[in-house]
Amino acid sequence: MTEVIHVLLVDDHAVVRAGLRAVLEKDRGFSVVGEAEDGAHAIEQAVALRPDVIVMDITLPDFDGIETTRRIRAKIPEARVLALTMHDEGTYLVPFLRAGGMGYVRKSSSDRDLMEAIRRVARGESYLQPGGVDAIVREHRMQEPAPDTLSERERQVLVLTAKGYTSREIGDQLALSPRTAETYRERIMQKLGLGHRSELVEYALRHNLLG
Fold it and tell me: On the CB side of 31, how many CA atoms lie within 13 Å of its CA?
């Protein structure tokens, strides 16, 4: 039996939340466990419900979806947040990823794309549409340590981390203990001057390391 993905919807428009609920609950693989109309309520619901995925609008009436994501991640580091917004990626994508977001989908996308994005984020993977990759490259065309500053094993750990694998899964693939995999990741982030796992994803995308 397929495991059900529990979703929290965050959007200030009730009609949008109702539409999203209707779309998702047509598929038995999703269950909408809560809704929130602003950032403060979203944080309360996230803490109380611990959903598998939080679908987050960027524009909210109190503080925006980026700040809401940052505050949720401060309380629940393992929270998985997917942005669903009318805004294109150029302005908001990179700040959202830095806040701990894991994916970005435009509201103009198909229902199928939205469902696929939620499934990927629920698995711990990142999800970006083509325009998102372009936005990251444009935003970060700057001097930074090149991938060849990393050892071959460090590059392997970087790629697997960026693809959403856990330390245990990385260890299984590379014949390492989970703790050793974590040590490699910490060393990689130190070498590259990165502070968060989402920044590893950005780095891997900018340098075409994900294939």
Answer: 10
User: How confident is the model at residue 89, as a pLDDT?
Assistant: 60
Q: Are 82 and 101 in contact (CB under 8 A)?
A: yes
pTM (predicted TM-score): 0.64
The architecture (CATH level 2) of 5-139 comes to 3-Layer(aba) Sandwich (3.40)
- Separation CA 55–CA 38 (nearest Å): 12
> What is the per-residue pLDDT for 196?
78
Domain parsing of the chain, residue ranges: 5-139, 147-206
b/e per residue 62-93 (b: at least 16 CB within 10 A): eebbbebbbbbbeebeebbbbbbbebebeebb
DSSP 168-186: HHHHHHHT--HHHHHHHHH
Does domain 147-206 fall into CATH 1.10.10.10? yes
